Automatic annotation (TrEMBL):
Protein name: DUF916 and DUF3324 domain-containing protein
Keyword Membrane included in the entry's annotation: yes
UniProt domain WxL Interacting Protein host binding: residue ranges: 168-304
Naturally occurring in which organism (per UniProt): Levilactobacillus angrenensis
Keywords: Membrane, Transmembrane, Transmembrane helix
Superkingdom of origin organism: Bacteria
Residues annotated as domain WxL Interacting Protein peptidoglycan binding: 35-153
Residues that span the membrane, as ranges: 315-336
C-alpha cells in the first residue's frame, strides 16, 4: 500500500512537471480517472509523430483547431479550455499556462490574439465532446513560430500567485490540468538566429527583502533551450563579488522575457552602487551583459537585519572550552594517579 501511494505521488509530480515547463511543446499525459484531452490533427500537420499541433499555416487563412475532451469518470464534470500564449516564467523556463504576463514587444502577433476565446464544456459521466477553436492568420503572415497552447482544467480551478505577486507560474490546487501545445509556422524550414537582449537591471523587494534582477528578452520568434545564465553581483566601491547565482537547463518561449532574480547573499552590505554581470550560453552562442543598480541605506538596513535574524548563533568556542576542560581533566587525573602510585611504591619500599 505504501509503495502504491509513493508511486501515485511520483506520477502526479511527473504530470505537473510536464504541464508547467519544457523546451519541447508536449501534450501532458492522459489521466483516465479525471479527464483527457486529445488533439485532432489536421492535414497541414508538419510532424505526424508529434502529439501536439505542429502546423504550417497560410497567411490570411482561418486555422481550425479541434480538441477531443473526454470524461472517463463516473460523475459529471465541467471543464474549461483556455487558449494561452507560451511565455517564459521567472524560473527561466518556457511554460504553457494561463498568465497575465504580456508577450515581448518584439512579437508580431500572439496565439491568443489570433484565436477565439475560452470554452466551457459540460460532460456527463463517461461522455466525450469535441471543442473547436478558430485561429485567424494575419494576411501578411508572420516570421518564425507563434507558440501557445490549449489549457484544459476543471471549471472550479483557482489560480494563486507566488509570494511576490508574480502569476507567471501556475499552482495547481487540488485538481489536474492538461495542456496541448500549438506551434504555428508559415515557413517551417526557416532558420533564425537567437537574439537576446538585457532590458533592465534593478531591485525587487518581496517581503521587504531587496533582490537584484535582470530582465532578459528573447527577441527571436523561436523557442530555444539549453540556456545557462551565470550572474555575479559586484560592489563598485571595493570591486568585491558579493553574490553569484547560476541558472541551468533554461529555455525561452518565442518573443518572451523573464526576470532572473539574484539573492544578494548572506553578508552585511553597505549602501552604494553595485554592478550585475551576466554570462549567458545556449549551444554555441554566448552573450555578456552588464548593468548597475543602487542600494539605498534603507534597503541595506533591511537586508542586513534579515541576514542578522537568519544567522544562527555559533557556539564553537563553547565546544572548544569543553574540549580543553576535558583534556585538562584527563591530564590531571593521570598526574594524580601517577603520584598516588609513586607514593604507594615508596611506602612499600619503606616497609621492607
Amino acid at each position: 500500500m505504501k509503495l502504491k501511494r509513493i508511486s501515485g505521488w511520483l506520477l502526479a509530480g511527473i504530470l505537473l512537471m510536464g504541464i508547467l515547463a519544457g523546451v519541447t511543446p508536449v501534450t501532458a499525459a492522459k489521466i483516465p480517472a479525471n479527464f483527457a484531452a486529445t488533439p485532432l490533427l489536421p492535414k497541414n500537420q508538419v510532424s505526424a509523430k508529434a502529439g501536439y499541433f505542429d502546423l504550417q499555416v497560410t497567411p490570411g487563412a482561418t486555422q481550425v483547431l479541434k480538441l477531443a475532451v473526454t470524461n472517463p469518470s463516473g460523475r459529471p464534470r465541467t471543464l474549461q479550455v483556455i487558449p494561452v500564449n507560451a511565455t517564459t516564467a521567472d524560473s527561466g523556463h518556457a511554460v504553457y499556462i494561463p498568465t497575465d504576463r504580456p508577450a515581448d514587444a518584439s512579437a508580431q502577433t500572439t496565439f491568443t490574439k489570433m484565436t477565439s476565446g475560452a470554452v466551457t464544456v459540460s460532460l456527463a459521466a463517461h461522455q466525450g465532446k469535441t471543442v473547436t477553436f478558430h485561429t485567424q492568420i494575419p494576411a501578411g503572415g508572420f516570421t518564425g513560430t507563434v507558440l501557445g497552447g490549449l489549457f484544459v482544467t476543471d471549471r472550479n480551478a483557482t489560480r494563486s500567485s507566488t509570494e511576490n505577486g508574480d502569476t507567471s507560474d501556475f499552482r495547481i490546487n487540488n485538481r489536474y490540468a492538461e495542456v496541448t501545445a500549438v506551434a504555428l509556422q508559415c515557413r517551417p524550414q526557416q532558420k533564425l538566429r537567437t537574439n537576446l537582449k538585457l532590458a533592465a537591471v534593478g531591485l525587487h523587494q518581496p517581503n521587504n527583502q531587496p533582490i537584484a534582477f535582470a530582465r532578459i528578452r528573447n527577441l527571436t520568434p523561436a523557442l530555444f533551450g539549453d540556456l545557462t545564465v551565470t550572474a555575479r553581483v559586484i560592489q563598485d566601491s571595493t570591486g568585491k563579488q558579493i553574490a553569484t547565482q547560476t541558472l541551468r537547463d533554461g529555455s525561452m518561449a518565442p518573443n518572451s522575457w523573464f526576470d532572473d532574480n539574484i539573492s544578494l547573499g548572506n553578508q552585511p552590505l553597505a549602501a552604494g552602487q553595485y554592478t550585475l554581470k551576466l554570462h549567458l550560453t545556449s549551444g554555441q552562442r554566448a552573450w555578456n551583459f552588464s548593468g548597475n543598480f543602487t542600494l539605498t541605506r534603507r534597503q541595506t538596513a533591511q537586508h542586513n537585519s534579515l541576514i542578522k535574524s537568519d544567522t544562527q548563533p555559533n557556539y564553537w568556542w563553547v565546544w572548544l572550552l569543553l574540549l580543553l576542560f576535558a583534556i585538562l581533566l584527563a591530564i590531571g587525573a593521570y598526574w594524580f594517579g601517577k603520584r598516588r602510585r609513586d607514593a604507594d611504591d615508596d611506602d612499600t619500599e619503606n616497609d621492607n
